[in-house]
Design goal:
This protein is of the alpha/beta class. It folds into two domains: about 5-85 and about 175-250, Metal-dependent hydrolases (TIM Barrel, Alpha-Beta Barrel); about 95-160, DNA polymerase, domain 1. It is about 40% helix and about 15% strand. It is built from nine helices and seven strands. Helix 1 (about 20-30) runs parallel beside helix 2 (about 50-60), helix 3 (about 90-115) runs antiparallel to helix 4 and helix 4 (about 120-130) crosses helix 5 (about 135-145). The longest helix has 27 residues, at about 90-115. The chain is globular. The model has no long low-confidence stretch (mean pLDDT about 95). The protein binds adenosine monophosphate (AMP) and manganese (II) ion (3 copies). Adenosine monophosphate binds near residues 137 and 252.
Length: about 280
């Protein structure tokens, strides 16, 4: 597959905080002209089998993937596992641990919200009733539905974001352990949305050094609604650390018109695509 083919290596289904089923997501992607799609739900591979079946029907290539929350220097850092074997036991074991951590974290966050005068128990039951793994996006949606905030962004700004009163510090597995689990499952680890973390440029460099030294193979150079300037900055980082480039929308919902499937920029010149053939 040539690097010119439409590729999207970062998307979510309703198995995490996306709104489409894996089959519907693949259908949307095919209609948007995508030839290669990765399903990368937060900390779960539950949707991969359905996505695979749909991709066969629509004639597009499905990359089995996952977006794993890790901890690096007390910050949550997201690592994409691409071309992973979802049945690999050590990876499955890590993901079982993530599910436990997510449910426990949600109980703690809702406890904090209760102490702030919000109906924490009700919010917790709303989040626990979602079909997939619970995320802060689901809690933000429950806060909107309950009329406590107007929009999901407000829920993060007032309660759920780092440093806000409903925030619970991340206790995700270490970055290096996560990269090792991805590689152990035959996958390539790509650092997701590298400019979204609150890090100084020096700290970002150290993150990338550690990521590369642990066996990380790629950087998400083109991500979501980012423009050419951000892609250029990520491309410079990829070159500096000898990482290949991935491209991903971080698509969650078709109603988010600013972040559609199939409308991503190409990789900047000189960046080796992570999907190069003969591929992984
Ligand atoms: P979690 O993995 O449970 O911490 O949830 C993180 C998810 O929340 C991200 O993947 C985004 O989909 C969503 N999210 C994070 N920050 C914001 C924000 N400021 N506004 C809306 N959604 C957000
Ligand atoms: Mn998300
Ligand atoms: Mn992410
Ligand atoms: Mn994502």
């Amino acid at each position: 597959m040539s690097p010119q083919t439409a590729v999207d290596l970062h998307t979510h289904s309703h198995h995490s905080d996306g709104s489409l089923s894996p089959a519907d997501l693949v259908g949307h992607a095919a209609r948007a002209g995508i030839g290669m799609l990765a399903l990368t739900d937060h900390d779960t591979v539950a949707g991969v089998a359905e996505a695979r079946g749909a991709a066969r029907q629509f004639g597009i290539r499905l990359v089995p993937g996952v977006e794993i929350s890790t901890t690096w220097r007390h910050q949550a850092i997201h690592v994409l596992g691409l071309w992973i074997d979802p049945a690999c036991e050590p990876l499955a074991n890590l993901l079982r641990g993530q599910a436990v951590r997510r449910r426990e974290r949600m109980r703690r966050i809702c406890g904090k919200l209760q102490r702030l005068g919000l109906p924490g128990d009700e919010l917790l039951s709303a989040v626990e009733s979602v079909p997939g793994l619970p995320t802060r996006s689901h809690l933000a949606a429950a806060l909107v539905a309950g009329g406590h905030v107007k929009r999901a962004e407000d829920a993060f700004r007032k309660f759920l974001g780092a440093g806000k009163p409903g925030h619970v510090a991340a206790e995700w597995p270490p970055l290096a352990e996560t990269v090792a689990a991805i590689r152990g499952a035959g996958g390539i680890a790509s650092l997701a949305h590298p400019l979204r973390y609150r890090l100084s440029s020096g700290a970002r460099g150290r993150l990338l050094e550690e990521f590369t030294a642990s066996g990380g193979g790629a950087l998400e150079v083109v991500t979501g609604a980012n423009g050419a300037q951000e892609a250029g900055a990520c491309a410079a980082l990829a070159r500096k650390f000898g990482l290949r480039g991935s491209i991903g929308s971080d698509f969650h919902h078709p109603q988010h018109a600013w972040n559609p499937l199939g409308r991503l920029a190409k990789l900047p010149a000189g960046i080796d695509p992570v999907w190069r053939e003969p591929g992984p």
